């Protein structure tokens, strides 16, 4: 095991514990539910094993479903985010993604912000649609997605800057 794999395992465990212990208890007015555990999928190395990411994302979502008693919606949403992640990279970063020079831990610029925003929106829309599983509550889904996306992005950016490696 190399240090990158150990770092990813530690990130997986810490984000999962933080989500279960802290962020699952946020439920402001029934609409604000931040889900920063998806940072594991967002910050997974660009040149990492794609099938490893899909398997880890499924396991991450399955573990969240176990703690939230949500019947598989987190697993499906995490798997969807992991599947569309390369397309989001190509859309947000363009040529930088082709040459594998993308780093999300650096200073927040429009490309990084658009990637994080699109990733969170894809996860949240799929999560809330699967949770309700009917379009009768379309405005509720849109409102929950919008508000939860805002708070998730704020928390994700704060976490990224807290765990950002120091420059030497």
Using the alpha-carbon principal axes, give the shape: globular
Instruction: Give the beta-strand count.
Output: 0
User: Major sheet: size, sense and barrel closure?
Assistant: none
Radius of gyration: 15 Å
**pLDDT < 50 runs, ≥5 residues:** none
Distance from first to last alpha carbon: 25 Å
Secondary structure class reads: mainly alpha
Mean pLDDT: 86
Q: How many helices in DSSP terms?
A: 7
Strand content: under 5%
Helix and strand sequence: HHHHHHH
Helical proportion? 55-70%
Kindly describe this structure.
This protein has 168 residues and is mainly alpha-helical. Helix content is 69%, strand content 0%. It contains seven helices and no strands. It has helices at 3-21, 39-42, 50-68, 73-93, 95-98, 110-132, 138-163. Helix 3 (50-68) packs across helix 4 and helix 4 runs antiparallel to helix 6 (110-132). The longest helix is centred in the last third of the chain and has 26 residues, at 138-163. It is globular, with a radius of gyration of 15 Å. It starts with a helix and ends in a 5-residue tail after the last helix.
